[in-house]
Write a structure and sequence with these properties.
five-stranded mixed β-sheet, D-tyrosyl-trna(Tyr) Deacylase, Chain: A, 2 domains, Beta-lactamase, single chain, seven-stranded mixed β-sheet, about 425 residues
Length: about 425
């Protein structure tokens, strides 16, 4: 776990010629270490406090990851996975970071390969060479939870296993589309009866190797289901020069669909896959965390301008790392640029919102019903974000009605 990096000083942002409420005292019972901001449709801050203090953004950073993906890859981008066959009928699968290669896709691929008269495979290997990563994602705790799953250039089902354990301790697949795999037995053994979604690296592993094993076992299981026989070894190996490319699978989901899934479910796996692919597309494969951090900083420079790009620092795409830092003002600017994609966010408490949660971190960022962006960053022990959001929403509604010459009784909106 990386150390927390954020400034402890704060200041109140003022716009020349524009009144900004000194709202910190009004919310002193809710904000002990944090800040908030509201902007109008032109990006002018209309209310806020501690706008320039750097806080841990947690999963709110996924909005920036999404914006970067749209800027670098384009909304219509589709991920690809390549298939190679050598003279000995050994199959090689090479991926480029597809975050949504699921069991359903594997069955589509298997059917296409069978239609090409592929009937027997004498070995199956996964090429993960397009990612040069040595460890799990920044901020990951190696827990059994699927949100801690590692990333890989070639991976399936979010690098998490769907297992069901019965009362006799037997392990099964919990999904009809996913066959039972030997890895399920290893990871599911000893777990309590019930259905589980388990990180493939629970307790620690070599992510590239374990992801390759999971992917190869899934393909082998599906191949056998549809009548393609498989023999020989399997695992991780780069594609040899003598192998011929026989098929390229283009995921039917566009980037916009991928991002919608990432934001709706707050998927750390999808976010980090997007983050890494952005870096690789901008600076060349193999992907690294460093390339991607630079690519995201470039997007900040392009979208926010040089005077704002240093107001955020991001080292992973999911927001798991406590080394990430961001100010309320910079997040408001990001939301201003993200407006064309705002409907990809979920609705929560009557507003569009992306949550951000870690231990001692409780954040929101999104848009009020009138389209104006808001940000709440609370880096403190008590989670008051929902109460603060409700009060800010009511205050924003009142301000709008008063500005239109209307009167409102606040108690009607409690």
């Amino acid at each position: 776990m990386l150390p927390v990096l954020f400034f402890i000083c704060s200041c109140l942002f003022c716009v020349p010629g524009q009144a900004v409420h000194a709202a910190c005292p009004d919310y002193s019972n809710l904000i002990k270490n944090g800040g908030y901001g509201i902007a109008d449709s032109s990006g002018n801050v209309t209310d806020g406090c501690n706008l320039d203090t750097a806080y841990i953004p947690a999963s709110v950073v996924k909005i920036l990851t999404a914006l970067s993906a749209f800027r670098i890859l384009g909304p219509a981008y589709r991920f690809t996975t390549e298939f190679y066959l050598d003279d000995n009928q050994v199959l090689y699968i090479k991926g480029y970071g597809d975050p949504l290669l699921l069991s359903e896709d594997v069955r589509r691929i298997a059917s296409r390969l069978k239609a090409q008269q592929l009937k027997h495979i004498r070995g199956l290997f996964i090429d993960n060479s397009e990612y040069a990563l040595d460890d799990v994602p920044p901020g990951s705790s190696n827990s059994s939870n699927a949100y801690d799953a590692p990333v890989a250039a070639t991976s399936v089902n979010f690098n998490s296993l769907p297992v069901r354990v019965d009362t006799r301790g037997r392990v099964f697949s919990s999904e009809p589309q996913t066959p039972w795999l030997p890895l399920m037995q290893e990871i599911g053994h000893g777990r309590k009866p019930g259905t589980h979604r388990v990180n493939i690296c629970v307790g620690g592993c070599r992510p590239k190797t374990t992801a390759a094993r999971y992917t190869s076992e899934l393909f082998i299981g599906v191949f056998k289901d549809i009548g393609i026989t498989v023999s020989g070894e399997s695992g991780a190996r780069t594609v040899p020069a003598i192998a011929k490319r026989i098929f390229v699978y283009r995921n039917p989901r566009t980037l916009e669909e991928v991002v919608k899934n990432m934001l709706y479910y707050s998927s750390n796996f999808i976010a980090n896959q997007l983050f890494l692919v952005c870096g690789a597309k901008r600076f060349g494969y193999p992907a690294t965390w460093e390339k991607s951090a630079t690519a995201i900083q470039d997007v900040l420079q392009e979208a926010l301008g040089g005077d704002m790009s240093d107001a955020a620092e991001v080292v992973d795409g999911a927001g798991l790392s406590r080394q990430n830092k961001m100010s309320v003002r910079s997040m408001l600017k990001i939301l201003e640029v993200f407006v064309p994609y705002k409907l990809l966010l979920r609705k929560y408490r009557g507003v569009l919102a992306k949550t951000g949660t870690l231990q001692g971190v409780y954040n929101y960022a999104g848009y009020f019903p009138d389209g104006n962006p808001y940000v709440i960053f609370l880096n403190q022990s008590k989670n008051n974000r929902a109460t603060l959001l409700d009060r800010l929403k009511i205050g924003h509604l009142e301000d709008n009605l008063f500005s239109q010459g209307q009167w409102i009784n606040k108690t009607n909106y409690n």
